[in-house]
Amino acid sequence: MSEPTHSSLGLTPEQIAKFQEDGFLVLPDELDSSTVESLLKESRTLLEDFPLDSHPLTKFSTGETAPHVGDDYFLTSGDKIHFFFEEAAFSSSGELLKPKSQAINKIGHALHVLSAPFKNITLTARNRAIAASLAFKDPRVLQSMVICKQPEIGGPCPSHMDSTFLYTDPPSAVGFWYALEDATPNNGGLGFARGSHRRYGVGKRFVRLAEGGTGFQGKDEEGIEGEEFEDLTVKKGGLVLIHGQVLHRSTRNTSMDSRFIYTFHVIEGENKYDEKNWLQPGKEGFSRLNDVA
Length: 293
Ligand SMILES: O=C(O)CCC(=O)C(=O)O
Prior knowledge:
Blueprint: H1 13-22, E1 24-27, H2 33-49, H3 72-75, E2 81-85, E3 104-109, H4 111-114, H5 116-122, H6 125-133, E4 139-147, E5 157-160, E6 168-169, E7 174-179, E8 190-192, E9 204-208, E10 214-218, E11 230-231, E12 239-243, E13 248-250, E14 261-268, E15 272-273, E16 287-288
Antiparallel strand pairs: 1-12, 2-3, 3-4, 4-14, 4-16, 5-13, 6-15, 7-12, 7-14, 8-11, 8-13, 9-10
The chain binds 2-oxoglutaric acid.
2-oxoglutaric acid (AKG) binds next to β7, β13 and β14.
């Protein structure tokens, strides 16, 4: 495994200022091509190897057309490697229309613990230094995933802020999002409402419901619905840092190209982690970036 091509120091003052202004920051060429290849190879192996017969066929639904995913397979995935299907991978009668390796929307949520190639690019001195640049005192990695955006059927990810899902008091989530393939407006790339983290608080929360499952509580602040998005092109190997309150989304992928990305999220360990969040720490707790040598 090669080291990231950048120095293992943190962000420059200009990069920090841009992140604070825009709510996101693109760092091209963060991973070299052999590292990207090894991560793609690991992703493909995971997709080929998971058993279909014992899988509950959980789909990753974002709550637009079906209730948000919230079954046990999802709720217990925080310390495991689980596989969530694309909604469009099934016929109306529930039959799988694609080979399983081309039918998965995302793999999550403990790749940074259980998969050596992903752990090796997550728990790094570089990422510890990036987090320190963003004023984290005790950065903890709490979830990680590969989002596949499969050709033709890759589902959209509607506009959201990550602190809705990973709430701390005060809010502190930051996403680290790595393109493993070129992510463009054509294959479901990322789009941002630039500066929106400065315009809105965390009005809506995604929580475990008392009656079981998951759901949204509260309401987005006024104006959020009318925000406009700029679509980015991020070349493979690029890293995008995402402020926990910036609105972002990705579109459906109807192209013939997949769009594999790897993302993990960090929260401030000194802030109160909310017990209503869907994702709760296992007995090991969340991974401390400060423990990285
Ligand atoms: O990559 C995507 O499609 C969306 C990722 C995202 O919104 C997130 O990780 O918060």
